Amino acid sequence: MRPLFRVFAVILFSLVVGGGSAWWMAQRGFRNGGVQSGPWTTNEHIGSKAAGLYLRAGVAVAGLLALNKSETVYYTAMTDSDGTPLRSNCAYTIEGSDPPARWWSITAYGADHYLIPNEQKRYAAGKTNVERGADGRFVIRAGGSPTAHNWVATPAGEPVNFSLTLRLYNPADTVTADLAATALPHIRKESCR
Q1: 63, 72, 65, 86: which is closest to 153 by C-alpha?
Q2: Nearest to 107, CA basis, from 76, 139, 66, 145
Q3: H or E element in which residue 18 lies
Q4: Less Cβ crowding at N or C end of the chain, within 10 Å?
């Protein structure tokens, strides 16, 4: 009976450790081995044949439906520029100028990787709908209270973590050559309730 118990214990241990580590890596998958640019992270292999199993699992969990980096580069921020996790009970400003791409957008996602429901049905701010200052720079607000322009919704209700995804469609060659060197928007916490 003891040898059978040992075999069962080894199998159970392997399933728990193997399954747990696979789940954990899939949750982090698209950030593993990634490139950091301020609060924004990406992985040069997203959407490519070079993507490993964990990266592919992470992309599947996050629902990116990823294209390769020559077509689209996906940057994700889970913290502000000071390194503090993005929380739904805080208001943020996302400041910058147009990234070097044919088109770009910034979208907020809940912890479940889905769009955040809001009465205004505004889910993203992008190159064609963001208002800019005279210097060409923009300020996008992310928070629970809508503003007239340049606003993306964050989760209402109990405070939870959320993320921002910056998509650069048809990025310039300078972006794909050095993903970390691209000037990306700064994320600043304004206030918390």
Answers
A1: 86
A2: 76
A3: helix 2-28
A4: N
Query: Which pLDDT score, from 0 to 100, does residue 160 have?
Result: 92
State the Rg of the chain over Cα.
Answer: 19
Mean pLDDT (the chain) is: 82
Candidates 164, 141, 142; CA nearest to 42 is: 164
Backbone angles phi and psi of 59, in degrees to 5: -65, -40
- Contact (CB, 8 A) for 46 and 30: yes
Are 76 and 148 a contacting pair, CB within 8 Å? Answer: no
Q: Supply φ then ψ for residue 189, to 5 degrees.
A: -75, 130
**Would the pLDDT of 23 be above 60?**
no
Instruction: Please give the structure tokens belonging to residue 175.
Output: 């972006």
Could you give the CA distance from residue 146 to residue 41 in angstroms, rounded to a whole number? 27
